[in-house]
Design brief:
Strand order of the largest sheet: 13-14-17-12-18
Helix content: 25-40%
Strand content: 5-15%
Radius of gyration: 36 Å
Number of strands: 25
Structural class: alpha+beta
């Protein structure tokens, strides 16, 4: 090879560093000049793309993009003797842009995908930059493609090149687009992209994204980037009403809604209608909140649950709410996407015990309470996921029984009674309630600057009544939202105190029912059947513990005819049995202490199998029982020849054990016949 001939890679590099640009045709040597064709590129000071085929009012960008006719940017010299298009100086392409003033905005790359905001402001992940894909991204602005990426054709008479009308070089456009995305680096849409719904910026200011507008404190804007977040364009959801169109006084949307909600037969008529009003507000601004309670509506078939769901749908508008009576977790996450739209699910009844559908949806609602992340596998083995900021409302006749303590701590339950016989159905005109919903949304948006202080006041009021932690967050958030819907000003001390006392009266009893994971673990353990059937009966762990601790009310014939008359002897025999299950009672009466082994003794594993405390997890919950000791604070014990450490729990900390009834739990299902030689065997 001639040493003066450029190597292919060097030629390619030179072409990329100095891409050719389109120019007006030049006359061939020895021939007459050729007039410029009508669709040639305009001069640099022109304001319109070639042929003036831009949409009305369009202004042409500066001609600073690549001008070549090859996929690598190298100019095509054509047949021998023809002349390539000339070069002319152009300002450099702006870093991270396709060309200066381009309506398609690169965002970055992630794996094989390049991310853009297209001409409409939509988020577009692109894997293949094909011609029609590029045209679709530019939409009505495709004349810009023909201007910045012309496809050059040769004049057969002169051998010179000129741009082809209504065509563009897709290879060069793709090269430039991919390069611009790569210049911006890696882009992760999870957490960076915000869809329709309510959000806050880094300064705590509310941003309400309607899909076609961003409603911000300083006025509306087009969907765009703001403080390192991307707010792409989406199909619009219902807008809030104009401030001047929102009625005041008795006709104010919150006041009318509260009056209407009071017509349902609530189990707590003093507070439930107010809670339901706050729930609607939480749904409207859910994505802007630090904490979102989960709401569960229960009642019989004649209680109006579905009618209340209809009212909520009208308030939000059909596209402002994700509502279904047959949903799955994957379906919901796909529908929610990057939005913070509220979710309302009707008829989420307890399913088959082998079904995980309800549990998965409840888990998603738990994650959404704090805006946490969910993950699931994908076909490319990379997994998919995202944050969830939606407020969830469930309604059913029964609440599934598998709710865990962490689910119940996020839950506000609203119970409905049946309407009296002969009660006429409530008339709900969709257009009327959509108008009121738009007005309510406007009030909440306008009053957002008071939210932080308002929430603090309600939290303080509930804390004084003993409602703190997650329970306090639930009620303070909901009541503060109802208060903001009804009143522009902050609440007075008497109002706060009165409502806090009223709510606490009902909530404290519910909190006792919820309990903790430690209480749930002990309840599971105490209620497990233990040992063999005796004449159609089966005893529980609780009854064996009562005998071992010599507690009042302990069953006297636990071991049949082998039961010693002396209570101390009976306690020793009971402890021998319990040792097989990794348990032992130490001491007697109210001073007794329950020892639960840490080692995974088979009998203890059997008691906790298929529960959330399986595989030794019982020790974690046992340490949360008030007064419990474990680890190095407890001496190891020998149980049936196995030396193990464990947790010691005072019998006084075990709910109900001191007063546990001395009856026996009937065995479930048909009982096998007791062999004669095993009668009374313990």
């Amino acid at each position: 090879m001639n040493s003066e001939t450029p190597r292919p890679l060097a030629a390619l590099g030179a072409a990329l560093d100095d891409p050719p640009v389109a120019a007006a045709p030049r006359p061939a040597r020895g021939r007459k000049p050729v007039q410029a064709v009508p669709d040639a590129a305009p001069p640099p000071d022109s304001d319109a793309p070639p042929d003036s085929d831009a949409p009305p009012g369009e202004t042409g960008p500066r001609d600073d993009g690549p001008r070549d006719d090859g996929p690598t940017g190298a100019r095509d010299p054509g047949p021998e003797g023809s002349k390539p298009p000339p070069r002319r100086g152009k300002p450099p392409r702006p870093h991270g842009e396709i060309f200066d003033g381009c309506p398609v905005k690169p965002l970055g790359v992630n794996g094989a995908l390049s991310y853009y905001l297209d001409v409409h402001g939509q988020l577009r992940p692109i894997a293949k930059h094909e011609r029609q894909v590029i045209m679709h991204m530019f939409g009505a602005r495709t004349p810009l493609l023909t201007h910045h990426f012309p496809r050059l054709v040769k004049d057969p008479e002169t051998g010179d090149f000129s741009p082809k009308k209504n065509d563009f070089n897709a290879d060069v456009a793709a090269l430039t687009m991919i390069t611009a995305c790569a210049e911006l680096g890696l882009f992760n849409p999870d957490g960076a992209v915000r869809g329709v719904g309510a959000w806050t910026d880094d300064d705590g200011q509310l941003i309400y994204h309607t899909g076609d507008r961003l409603l911000m404190a300083d006025g509306p804007r087009e969907p765009q980037a703001h403080q390192a977040r991307i707010y792409p364009a989406y199909p619009p959801i219902p807008h809030p009403a104009a401030a001047e169109k929102v009625p005041a006084g008795a006709d104010a949307p919150a006041a009318v809604l509260l009056d209407t909600l009071e017509t349902w037969q609530w189990s707590r008529p003093e507070i439930d209608a107010m809670i339901a009003l706050g729930m609607v507000g939480v749904q409207m601004l859910g994505g802007a909140l630090d904490w979102r309670p989960t709401f569960w509506l229960t009642g019989s078939r004649a209680s109006g649950k579905s009618q209340l769901q209809n009212l909520i749908r009208h308030l939000h508008g059909a596209s402002g709410l994700i509502q279904s009576n047959d949903a799955t977790k994957s379906g919901l996450t796909s529908r929610i996407g990057h939005s913070s739209l509220p979710v309302a699910l009707d008829e989420l009844e307890p399913g088959d015990e082998r079904s995980s559908k309800e549990r998965d949806i409840i888990t998603l609602a738990r994650v959404a309470s704090s805006g946490g992340q969910w993950f699931r596998g994908s076909s490319d083995q990379k997994g998919t996921g995202g944050n969830v900021y939606s407020s969830f409302l469930f309604s059913s006749i029964l609440i599934p029984g598998e709710l865990k303590a962490q689910d119940l701590s996020r839950l506000i339950t609203l119970n409905l009674g049946a309407f009296p016989e002969g009660t006429p159905p409530l008339t709900l005109r969709a257009e009327t309630w959509r108008r009121r919903g738009a007005g309510l949304k406007r009030l909440l948006i306008d009053r957002w600057p008071t939210w932080a202080r308002r929430l603090d006041l309600w939290r303080e009021a509930f804390a004084l009544e003993g409602l703190a932690g997650r329970n306090g967050d639930n009620w303070a958030t909901t009541l503060a939202m109802a208060d903001m819907a009804l009143h522009a000003g902050l609440p007075e001390g008497d109002t706060l105190s009165g409502w806090a006392k009223k709510v606490a009266k009902y909530v404290k009893a519910d909190a006792d029912d919820i309990g903790s994971d430690a209480d749930a673990m002990l309840l599971h353990l105490l209620s497990q059947p233990f040992d063999i059937y005796r004449r159609g009966e089966q005893h529980t762990i609780a009854q064996w513990l009562m005998v071992a601790a010599q507690l009042p009310g302990a069953p006297s014939g636990l071991m049949g005819s082998d039961t010693p008359a002396d209570r101390a002897d009976a306690a020793r025999m009971a402890n021998d049995k319990l040792a097989k299950a990794g348990l032992r009672m130490i001491g007697a009466g109210q001073d007794a202490v329950l020892f639960i082994a840490t080692q995974p003794i088979q009998g203890l594993k059997d008691l906790f199998q298929r529960s959330q405390w399986a595989n030794g997890v019982w020790s974690q919950s046992a340490m949360r029982v008030p007064g419990a000791k474990g680890g190095r604070d407890v001496e190891p014990r020998k149980l049936q020849g196995i030396r193990t450490r464990g947790t010691e729990i005072p019998v006084t900390s075990i709910p109900g054990l001191l007063s546990f009834p001395a009856d026996r739990v009937p065995a479930s299902g048909p009982l096998p016949a007791t062999p004669p030689d095993l009668e009374g065997f313990a």
